[in-house]
Amino acid sequence: MSNYGYFMEPQNFSVNDGDGIRTTIFFAGCPLNCRWCANPEGLEDVRRISFNAETCIGCGKCALNCPEDIGINLNLPEEREKCTSCGRCVEYCPTGSRKKLVKRYAIEDILEIIKRQEIFYRYSGGGVTFSGGEATLQQDILRVLVNNLYDRAVNLAIETSGYFEFEEVKDILKRMDLIFIDIKHMDDIKHKKFTGIGNTKILNNIKRLNELNVDVVVRIPVIVGVNADRRNIIETARFVNKNIKNPKIELLPYHNFGDEKYEVLGIEKPSGEFKRPSPDLLDKLKNLIKAEGVNIVNFK
To answer: What is the pLDDT along the chain (300 residues), one digit of tens a residue?
Structure first.
């Protein structure tokens, strides 16, 4: 097993991904390709370099020091194709217009980041949340981190798409204190249209979570034009009520905060057809869910 993995920048002092103050560890790589993804840099488990043309002063130091002879504008398709994401340009950029969005970390580096924050977990009832991308894609690294932190009595949570082989990661999931798992759409065809894969494996994995005796929160990224209709929300609530012992749902309103990442990675932004639900619509959806016997929770 490699001692290294690919991660986006860890986030300390997070209060949205479980109880208390937490450190969120973002694994790179994801089996889904959601058309609204807010973390496009994490779709692959490889190093990723961004380029912000607005802050670039055109000094050319990146180009002078690039072993692949790439020019200043990294976002040109032909330049992106040549880039190996070695990161030398980042070291020479005086304005921070080039950045490493995905880095290669040793297990020891991640554990050291967490160790420096443990005092905040102890006093706030917080801990560590594994996110992504999809953390279970790098399951060997994830397993080492989980086992180490579990032995140190650190509260553990995971945010997952649910697209994994259950038996392969069952031992990891059993050590969680909280599992956040997404249901993006109950209709298999629409799920595939918007994420690139069907939902059968995800729904089957959710059914099996009762084997773990771990608290579960089903999250729905609420997107007008995708899944915010009455029928889908009711079907989701009924599925959760039937298959989760203590059924809970959290609604996550769509946002486009990640659009800048698409720009600096030189890739097309999500479609303008995706809309954020209004507060009134969210209230109506919450009432539909509660009417099906499912509790509404909110970690935001």
So the answer is: 679 999 999 999 999 899 999 999 999 999 999 999 989 998 888 899 999 999 999 999 999 999 999 999 999 999 999 999 999 999 999 999 999 999 999 999 999 999 999 999 999 999 999 999 999 999 999 999 999 999 999 999 999 999 999 999 999 999 999 999 999 999 999 999 999 999 999 999 999 999 999 999 999 999 999 999 999 999 999 999 999 999 999 999 998 877 888 889 988 887 778 899 999 999 999 999 999 999 999 997
Torsion of CA 83, 88, 92, 94, to 10 degrees: 60
Structure-token pair, residue 175: 């050590």
* Residue 57: exposure state from Cβ atoms within 10 A (0-12, 13-18, ≥19): exposed
- Half-sphere exposure in the Cβ direction for 7 (13 Å, CA): 23
Note the Cα 20 to chain centre separation in Å: 19
Estimate the crossing angle of helix 139-151 against helix 166-173, to 10 degrees.
Answer: 20
β-bridge mates for residue 148, sequence order? none
pTM assigned to the model: 0.93
Q: Is 295 helix (H, G, I), strand (E, B) or coil?
A: strand
* Token output for 101: 């969005």
DSSP state of 224: B
How many Å apart are CA 3 and CA 275, to the nearest integer?
41
